[in-house]
Write a structure and sequence with these properties.
Mean pLDDT: 88
Largest sheet: 6 strands, mixed
Low-confidence stretches: 8-28
Distance between the termini: 89 Å
Helix content: 25-40%
Strand order of the largest sheet: 10-11-17-12-15-16
Structural class: alpha+beta
Radius of gyration: 25 Å
Strand content: 25-35%
Number of domains: 3
């Protein structure tokens, strides 16, 4: 009996080791690694009673050896406006652009296989009609699709925000003189991942800039233009996030399970857990903020839902990627000394990155009153002109 039990135990141990090895191998596999790009969008028709938006998007199979099916794909559009939408209607149509199969005339999306390392395209048409479209601000296109493959049947979404109103450059020509500097809060259109910082600066800021001016941009608009936002429906809180989020101040972006999971996904569970334990110990001895120092830069920069203007208040917006590289690119392309800043209504100014020669004290003094605001002003850029003696 002892020999039998010993053999059985050894067999179970081997089986367990094999299972663990297979699990580790499974976790390292790509799964349904298929991505839908935001695409290239243009406004084909822009009349007082009719807009037509056209987007060319691409499905990309990111795996090395797997075929991924796309059995379903649909799109819908939500309009954002300063006025009522009662008499405004929109229709959204998806047309496959596969090279090897023609689209159906009835608009039906037929199941399609994106082969290993390949891509395929689709077109989205959005027609908006109404008696007066002047109050429209943007169109939020939500593409729902299903990936089907080794990872199972996984629903996914791609969110695309297309701006519809673009302020004239002269609308921002309203200089103020306060806090040791002349400053211009520059109004822009609703910035989206379809934009890039250099083009936005060239379009809205350069007509007003002079030698010696300093450009400051909010960290959230930079992150949005980089596409660093996630919808909560796409994030699954794990054991760690669901438990430690309760210990953060209710107004913190880490006080929800999804917000905390966003940090865990970036910094890793072990680093976040260690930061929580060590930060809690440090707090007992009177040292606050230890968690944020240990958990990584993103711990302070994540904005949970409601953290920014519509429609981004529906998303979790992460901090920008490589802010130093961004400011250096802007200065290289425009000649303007530049800083990326995080400013709030509590008179706190955090400088994430700045080009050489920019005085941090000058920035902190000039921005402490938060001239750009934290509501829906759509003034993500502040141009600073030092006054004599600063």
């Amino acid at each position: 009996m002892g020999v039998v039990l010993g053999t059985l135990g050894a067999g179970l141990a081997v089986a367990g080791a094999v299972a663990l090895a297979l699990e580790a191998q499974y976790r390292g596999r790509a799964g349904n690694a298929l991505d839908l790009t935001p695409g290239d969008w243009k406004i084909e028709v822009s009349d007082p009673q009719h807009y037509r938006l056209v987007g060319e998007l691409e499905l990309r199979n990111l795996t090395d050896s797997l075929e991924i099916f796309v059995p379903e794909l649909t799109a819908e559009t939500q309009l954002l406006s300063k006025g009522s939408l009662d008499q405004i209607e929109s229709t959204t149509a998806v047309t496959p652009q596969h090279e090897d199969e023609p689209a159906r005339k009835d608009g039906y999306w037929f199941a399609y296989i994106v082969k290993v390392g390949k891509t395929t395209k689709l077109r989205i048409n959005v027609d908006i009609k109404g008696p007066d479209l002047s109050q429209l601000q943007s169109a939020w296109v939500k593409v729902t699709y299903v990936t089907y493959g080794p990872g199972g049947r996984i629903p996914k979404k791609r969110h695309v925000i297309v701006p519809l109103q673009f302020p004239a450059v002269e609308d921002s020509n309203n200089w103020q003189n306060r806090d040791g500097a002349e400053m211009l809060c520059v109004k822009t259109h609703l910035l989206t991942p379809l934009d890039n910082p250099v083009d936005a600066v060239k379009r809205y800021v350069m007509p007003h800039a002079k030698p010696g001016d300093v450009l400051t941009i909010g960290e959230t608009p930079i992150a949005i233009m980089q596409g660093r936002m996630r919808h909560p429906s796409e994030i699954k809180p794990g054991w760690l996030a669901r438990r430690i989020c309760y210990y953060f101040h209710p107004t913190s972006s880490l006080a929800t399970a999804v917000g905390m999971q966003s940090l865990v996904d970036i910094s890793g569970p072990w680093r976040v857990a260690a930061a929580f334990v060590l930060g809690s110990i440090a707090r007992v001895f009177g040292h606050r903020g230890g968690f944020y120092q240990l958990a990584g830069e993103q711990a302070r920069l994540i904005d949970d839902v409601t953290g920014t203007l519509p429609p981004y208040e529906q998303f979790i917006v992460l901090g920008p990627h490589d802010p130093q590289g961004v400011v250096e690119e802007i200065q290289r392309e425009t000649g303007l000394p530049t800083a990326i800043v995080d400013v709030n209504d509590l008179r706190r100014v955090k400088i994430l990155a700045s080009t050489s020669g920019v005085s941090e004290k000058f920035l902190e003094d000039a921005l402490r009153s938060n001239p750009a605001g934290n509501a829906d002003e759509q003034t993500p850029v502040v141009l600073l002109r030092p006054t004599q003696g600063t």
